[in-house]
Amino acid sequence: MLADLEVMSVEGVTDAKAHKGILQAAKYIINANNHHHLLEEAFQRAEGYNLVIVGHSLGAGVAAILAILLKPHYPNLKCFAYSPPGWLLSSTLNNYAKDFVCSVVVGKDLVPRLGLATIQKLKEKMISLAWQSNQPKYRILAGSFWRSAFCCFSSSADGDDEDFDYEAGVDAEPLLRTSPARTRTYTNEQEPKDQSHHVPIIEERLYMPGIVLFIEELVPQRGCFEMPTYQAFWMRPDSFDEILVSGFTMVHDHMPNVVYKALKSLADSDFTVPTL
Predict the structure, then answer these.
(1) Whole-number pLDDT of residue 220
(2) From the candidates 83, 90, 109, 133, which is the catalytic residue?
């Protein structure tokens, strides 16, 4: 997320760069494979099979870069990256990977949206909201914790946060519900003196690997014991450019068992791979 980039040597791809730490993890696996001849022995036992690489979360990032490194040796390989890091590959390298890498993202999953720029954007909104609210901050945090801990007893895991209008300013409902809110306004002289949150972030844009299948619940405001139903769409990797603060859901949607259930419910669906 905040690591350096490293240049990759990929035939036919200019300016190929990837997240340095995750690339190093993929290279470690390559070296281990070359030393122990793991894939060579596997294909001797299973002739006619193709290579499929999978991973979840940071492991999905490693799987995607591993697929890029192995592609010249296994032209028919495929990679499925479940809930991968969003800021992983440079634009040119991601375009190259679209032919053999598919990312899967469920709902408001935090990890595919994490990046220096998205964190900076979230920080600015939080500072703005904190200054607009006249509620003690401990009450805001306590209310958020209470709702996250006991979300199953409400009609929605996210409560009413989705009704908050960022553009409406101080007249809008608070992002974190407590008691009826009192708000305050301030002049430029009263504004926070720390202006570090206004410093623009200059960073090369990175992307989620390959094509992206986005899955969301058809009826997000359901009871705790109701089985979810899902729908899926093909989306562009640059669509996930904002962290969606939603308490329980932003972590829940990242869990591998949730991804598995969502994919299993869509197993009979027919998805035509898009041209992006």
Answers:
(1) 66
(2) 109
Active site residue 165: no
pLDDT under 70 in the chain at which residues? 1-3, 137-138, 140-203, 220-224, 273-276
pLDDT recorded at residue 97:
96
> How far does the chain reach from its first CA to its final CA, in angstroms?
25
Between the alpha carbon of residue 165 and those of residues 57, 62, 129, 171, 216, the distances in Å are 31, 37, 11, 9, 22
Q: Phi/psi of residue 70, each to 5°?
A: -90, -10
Q: Residue 120's closest CA among 151, 93, 87, 146?
A: 87
Among residues 117, 129, 122, which one has the least CA distance to residue 164?
Answer: 129
Q: State yes or no: is 57 an active-site residue.
A: yes
The encoded tokens of residue 20 equal 């340095």
Residue 107 CA: distances (Å) to CA of 66, 170, 206, 258: 26, 28, 21, 10
- Choosing from 57, 103, 156, 246, the catalytic residue is 57
